[in-house]
Design brief:
Number of strands: 0
Largest sheet: none
Number of helices: 4
Strand content: under 5%
Distance between the termini: 32 Å
Radius of gyration: 13 Å
Shape: globular
Order of helices and strands: HHHH
């Protein structure tokens, strides 16, 4: 069950970062993330179990997410993981 939950959370994160045109992603961005940086969101005490578990996966997801710079309009230079993690 734990592996299934992890996989589902990673899929939700992937949908958020791919800007999937779904009602859920639009709702999450409008009501939960708003105009804040996803990587720095504090986990609210009154949030749902599912949103809490998604936020707890951020550390693992950060190493799998890269932003394409493009014209730079949707990239935060200081906070978005736009370079590969150097080892």
């Amino acid at each position: 069950m734990e592996v299934t939950n992890h996989a589902a959370n990673m899929r939700h994160l992937w949908h958020i970062f791919r800007n999937r045109d779904t009602m859920w992603v639009k709702w999450v961005k409008s009501y939960l993330i708003k105009d804040r940086n996803f990587w720095q969101l504090k986990i609210p005490k009154d949030c749902s179990w599912s949103w809490r578990s998604i936020l707890k996966e951020r550390d693992k997801a950060m190493y799998m997410v890269q932003h394409l710079i493009g014209n730079g309009q949707n990239t935060n230079f200081w906070l978005d993981p736009w370079l590969a993690i150097l080892s």
